[in-house]
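note to self — DONT lose this again. spent like an hour looking for the file last time. sequence + predicted structure for the chain T wanted, 358 res
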Amino acid sequence: MPRLFIDARLAGHSGIGVYVAEMLPRVLPGLAAWRPVVLAGERVRKAVAGLAGAHAETAAWDVPPLSLADLVAAPPGVARDDLMWTPHFNVPLRAGMPLFVTLHDLLPLTAPALAGRGRSVPVRAWMRAIRRRARAVMCVSEFTRKEAVRVGGLDPGRLRVAHLGADPAWFDARRARSAPPTAVCIGLMKPHKNVLRLLRAFASVRDRIPHRLVLVGRRRGVRNVDRAAVALAAALPDRVQLVEDVPFAELLQIVSAADFAVQPSLHEGFGLPALEAMAAGVPLLASRAGALPEVCGDGALYCDPASEKDIARGLLRLAGDAALRATLAAAGRERARAFSWDACAEATVAALEGALEA
């Protein structure tokens, strides 16, 4: 009987790390018959063991994910008839086991210039392996599913969609607005997050609004960091605050205290910070890009991410219109209730069982 191996090396990262943390305790109890083994590096192994609990064995795999070594590494202990679940596209290339893959985005293929030089080459190799060996691929949005077909060349018949969710803590967050008022943007300081245009737009209207802009985004140790955005943020210390690596409780406080949130990305495979802001009842300015319209629906005010003037118009509208903020806060919370981690886990367990039985 095959076993299920799960690559949890990205636990602790933003985005996919949140997915790993939310999914493991939800899916593992229903997969006990397949004797799951969760693989993790030394830095996160204790946390991963806590997430897995008594429902899975935890084993060491210390190869850094998405590194050059990852291209030639084979996961320990996996036999050729076992199933490997990877939560990203970095599947094992030198091992022949069947795969179950979760795709969050295909940015290196969709927009190579934004992803960084050379990123598309390994991703193409990983996608070739996924085309050959994946029994099923779970996409986090319909947008990502379409990209998987269009630029990834995947068989539509093997693709499923399971939207992500918002932790219940976001719905329970207390709205205690800060003084002076703040706007918040969450995301890694990378070019596709479009923070540079947001900062330029904010600088153009800062004399017309009282708000400070809080940027919650890791920049240290990040590949392809947007150095121009970091430099501009540092040049506006009186009105812009750049924070990174904040604990979850502090992140809840920062977001729930904001007058509004901004997600100006040029590309999003899902847009988890946007969903979390809506769940907290924080009005949202979102870009018309990637999966954001799919996720946010009528719960956000939209802007053109390629236009600093349009982003600035959105900032002015939300900063100056309390009635609009109240309308968006209510609509956003209602929209966010349509997404849940439990539903995502249920769909994933069903797809995993089908892949294991195949």
